[in-house]
Every structure is written in structure tokens, then in C-alpha cells.
Amino acid sequence: MAEKRIYNFSAGPSMLPLEVLKKAQSQMLNYEGSGMSVMEMSHRSKAYDAIIKKTEERLRTILAIPNNYKVLFLQGGATSQFSMVPLNLLQKGKADYIVTGYFANKAYAEAKKYGDIALAGTSKDKDFTYIPKQQELALNKDADYVYLCANNTIYGTEWKYVPDTKGVPIVADMSSNILSKPIRVEDYGIIFAGAQKNMGCAGLTVAIVREDLIGHAKEFTPVMMDYAPLAEKDSMYNTPPTYAIYILGLVLEWIEEMGGLAVMAKRNEEKAKLLYTYLDTSDFYQTQVNPSDRSLMNVTFRSPNAELDALFAKESAAAGMSNLKGHRAVGGMRASIYNAMPMEGVETLIAFMKKFEEENK
Ligand SMILES: *Cc1c(COP(=O)(O)O)cnc(C)c1O
Questions:
Q1: Does 48 map to a domain?
Q2: By the 8 A CB rule, do 287 and 300 touch?
Q3: Would the pTM of this model clear 0.85, i.e. be above it?
Q4: Fewest beta carbons within 10 Å, which of 116, 162, 253, 280?
């Protein structure tokens, strides 16, 4: 039975590759002859051990994660990392935060509970429509770490360079662009991401942590927020989010079959280029974001007024596209076009946009 699927432009939880959903469906009742669903398995069983090990191995291969990094499968969302990072990394007590949007600002506010936190750069002066350049950053070489949000899901900006921090570890929130392109993991001290945007389903947070940054948590740190016991027990200090890890495994398998991150990057560039090129040629729509800082994952734009934005959201939903309404902090529209969004989804969106423009200009 082929269900009618729509193009889901949600920022997260977001669409998954159909192949992944079908495979999960086919394995739902009886995983590889085990006689049970992955959901029903003990996390300490042999069958599950193979799933989590294979998932980590695939992630290590796809992202080329060096051996001196631990991969942690955690819960609590990306938001819990806003607390875990300062609790684990503040030793001298100072950190530099670069605030380029909503989630970076939340992380900054949270970190202030634990130490001497400096605002080392921000794009608030222009409503977060750009990424600060290296020379605009005021970095302290004595900081314990430098924090940034690699892709600003709500405003639609993305870092296109890794700042030079003179050896101070960079902590990057990659919730909305991890696995969208190859990266150099060794440029970062910690990379973390909630899985529900580009890695799988909600309930899982992945943290890739350089080993020397583990084991320095403040003594009052709750055990579930301390990287050390979680790393020592290979994410099995307690029950990990077993099914979400399994889904990540299927997504990674799909990425492998598609040809890996270089292929993902090319597809993502093509999709984003098509959409931005159309936005640039239209007098009806506009995008506020500085062209060189445009996100390949979350494309924000607006029509001439808020009434038309609301009509756009309504009519696009009726035309088989969901979640195109922008975040309330920005207004307008947002098309999230993660790995799982096919080119045809973007083409369908642009065809709708052209028609809407004709009818409403
Ligand atoms: C969605 C998102 C978050 C919040 O993730 P949760 O898993 O809901 O805590 C944090 N940072 C970025 C960049 C996001 O896109």
C-alpha cells in the first residue's frame, strides 16, 4: 500500500529518506530473525550490540572521525549540550561564544551559569543575517573553548569557514548541517547534533568529543551530564535511545549507498542553488541573508507582506508541501532542504512559488 507522501520542509523533526522508512517498516516486527522489533530488544543483547557498533563504525567512516575522538549516543537533545559543554570543559573558567542566532544565544545564556563567558562575536546588529568574519571575532587565547553554531536553523545562515582560534578547542553545534557535507572533524574539540534534523529521528543526540576534553567535569556535574562515564561505558551507562540509534544506522547506510558525503554535498549545493537563484531573480520574494553566508539546509525568504506570507503557508500546504511557515522569531517562510529532500521537492516548491507570485503580485 503506497501511502501518499508529501514534501515535508520541516526544520525538525524532518523528512527521512523513503528507503530508510521502508527498511524500518520491513524490519519492524522481526529484526533479522530475532523474532522481535529493535524496540523490544535488550540494549545489552548480542543483536543490539551489533546494531550500535555498526552504527558507530559507519559514522566514523562517513565523517572520517579520528581515533582520538569518542562518539557518544546521548539523550536530552542538542539543548542538553548547552549545559554539558560548560560543565565538562570549563577548567580555567572562561569561554568565548559567537552568537549567530537563536540556538547559539540559548547556549550562551546557559553557559553563563557556570563561568566567565564572553561574547566573542555576534551578528545581532543585523538581525542575524550574516556570519562574522575572522577579523570581527574577539577571541581570548586563554579561553577553555570557543563555541559556535555551524548552521543557524532559524535565520538560515551557515559558517563557511572554521575560525582560527590559535589552538583553543572549537565546540560546534551542527544539529542542522551534520552529514550535509564532508568536514574535518580534527578542526573541532566537540561536535554535537540532535538527530532529528539530518541524522534520523528525535530522542538521540550525537556528540563527537576529543578524548583529552573528557574527564574534567565539575564535581557537582550530574552523572548523565558528565562525558567521562558515558564514554567509558560506550554510551551504555544506562539505556541509550535504542530505536533512534538504529534509525541513525539506516540513515548512514543510505548515505553510504548514495555515495557518501561528497555526493550529499553536491546534491545539497544543487538544491540550494536552484532555490536561491530563483529567489535572486524574483522581485516578489526576498531573502535577507548575506549571499556568502546562506545556509544550504534552511532557506529563509519572505513575500511582500505578512498577509501574503500567511496565504503562502496555507496554499503551499494544500498543494502538498508542509511546514513552509518561517519560525516565529523571523516570520516569512523557511524551506528546510536536508539530505532527505529530493531535487523534485525543491522543483515542486519553485513551481508553486512562481504560480503564487503570478497570482499575487
Ligand atoms: C533544533 C536545534 C537545536 C535544539 O535541538 P533539541 O534537540 O530540540 O534540543 C539546537 N541547535 C540547533 C542548531 C538546532 O537546529
A1: yes
A2: yes
A3: yes
A4: 280
